[in-house]
């Protein structure tokens, strides 16, 4: 039965937030053999605001998932999706922490996830908008969001000093906190930030993630319409 | 004397009136801590939990340094262990050991369990304060001055490399430091909401709660924040940019409306930290942004009636009302 072997359906499009989920799903595929289906929601044609999709996500955005193995339970908000998948499908906690067994590590993981979800995504998204999409070129706005994106990169760079990954003891382990961030950070050029040279730890971290075959496969997932 | 409970709307069935007539202990300690009976929030007694610790929780929330001595003498045995004391017709069970000890292991000189780095005007610090209040946790607020960039000082950056507020230190947990307001809410809920009043326990509902918190953290906060910046703070008023963000404010209220028209609360059929996470920025928008006219003929009750009702229920919760009033008072003093 399709749902037994592929419980998760991902509704997405080639965006940074959807890539947060596809990269992690590919990691789960390698680690546990978990497979998934994808449905393309063409945001260029505003499919995400149609009633059928609003039933899945009243916010009308991608990504969203439905879990056919758990009564078609649906989740929207990319970071909430990552936490959901980690809890239900990463039983050995290879990519996260058990909130009961490791409560402080879990809280720190959440902190970095919220920081990126609230403090990088929307901000770099505004940089993208004013840099590439806004009909009017407004220097103040472009500058404001690029500068704030750079500031966030600096915070990440400080965190990644003598660390390989955002969360976890010692130098850290690859977790959903990294999957939550890297799809955005690697899109820096689109926001108007040419290179990551100014943040060497961040640059190395992105390269480190892209060197993982599963993560790389997740970045390149294609959608049919 | 009987105590008028302060009932959070929607939770009537969970609270009850406790009559504790003429008890020298109870009256004595209430006087000591300057609590007026009408302010005493007396929640339902459940097995393994303590009326006393809940009373204290609220009492501590209102601020008292003399409480520990009074409580110590009241329950005896340094407040540890489960004991029962009878109180002129009311039975009060002493709480589980963990609850009691966490009330008293306060290592900072201010004697409160938490240090909260926050800001007078910004919404996110008050968001955390409202949950601390509602859980009856003690905290000392340090208001950082953004004009002199105190939030970017080396001392604060050492705690919070992002240099924003809120940041908390939990002196009841080895001075554990945490930032990002919703991560803090989850931490407080997980660790200190022992009766799971403000959080959910059902597997699926936990995910829904996370979903709403992430939506608030990325979809409401930052966008309402950009609207606030361009309407109030940016020297140049740029219409297309203001429009972009005020349109998004309206869209977000619409999303909330589409859900709240069908249900009273975002998750779990009760008020949770998910609902509480939205309040301060919604309040900020209604009080500071709508009156500027930049949201056109925005009419909260007419355009988003279910959301307006939900917001009214939330702002009537004493803990939330308290922080809103405190913020208004401090802003007035500042100006």
From TrEMBL, chain A:
Domain GST C-terminal: start-end pairs: 102-225
GST N-terminal domain ranges (all copies): 5-93
Domain of life according to the entry: Eukaryota
Xref: SUPFAM superfamilies: GST C-terminal domain-like, Thioredoxin-like
Pfam families xref list: GST_C, GST_N
InterPro entries: Glutathione-S-Trfase_C-like, Glutathione-S-Trfase_C_sf, Glutathione_S-Trfase, Glutathione_S-Trfase_N, GST_C, Thioredoxin-like_sf
Similarity-based family: Belongs to the GST superfamily.
PANTHER family (UniProt xref): GLUTATHIONE S-TRANSFERASE GSTA, GLUTATHIONE S-TRANSFERASE-RELATED
Descriptive protein name: Glutathione S-transferase
Source taxonomy: Eukaryota, Fungi, Dikarya, Basidiomycota, Agaricomycotina
UniProtKB/TrEMBL annotation, chain B:
Domain GST C-terminal: 202-335
Listed InterPro entries: Glutathione-S-Trfase_C-like, Glutathione-S-Trfase_C_sf, Glutathione_S-Trfase, Glutathione_S-Trfase_N, GST_C, Thioredoxin-like_sf
Span of domain GST N-terminal: 112-196
A Pfam entry, by short name: GST_C_3
Gene3D superfamilies documented for this protein: 1.20.1050.130
Family statement: Belongs to the GST superfamily.
Protein's name in the database: Glutathione S-transferase
Naturally occurring in which organism (per UniProt): Somion occarium
